[in-house]
Predict the 3D structure of the following.
Amino acid sequence: MLLRAMKHLSLALLPFLALSGASSGGGRPRAAAEPADFARLKALAGTWKGTAMAGTPDAFPVEVDYRLTGGGSAVVETLFKGTEHEMVTVYHCDGDDIVLTHYCAAGNQPRMRLSTPGAQELVFEFDGGTNLDPATDGHMHVGRLEFIDADHINTRWSFYSGGKPDHDARFELQRENPKSKLQQIGYLGGK
């Protein structure tokens, strides 16, 4: 009997729970439609391989994974997967803006907001963070994603220390399993 009453109570509360889940909880309201630039970030889903340079002229091989989470509401970028230097960056919409949090091997979590949208390049700039004082602590401060074509991107991450630029980490990446041109335009379907 108690189980039956709990089931009816749960069903009665379902519409209220659904409404409370749709609310942003005091933050910025979710945009009616996601920005086109976020759709381009979502299209990165998959594995990318290429070369990286970070503070030295020597390039080294790198692999970057992009995947969707949260019902497609966030893009998770994983760099140096499975190593002690693994880092994750999560991109998501904040109303009409696109923001990211970078979970850095430096032990801090800088946040960035899209400052320069565009067809060719997205530029994210520092917008706060945790476990860092931007005036003194080393942290990623600017992130850039350059879209060469559907299967090639370049990224550049600017590391700041003592409140000023220190060095850039650059990545030249190619999609591991490129889609055919017919798949890219949706003719053959598939993902």
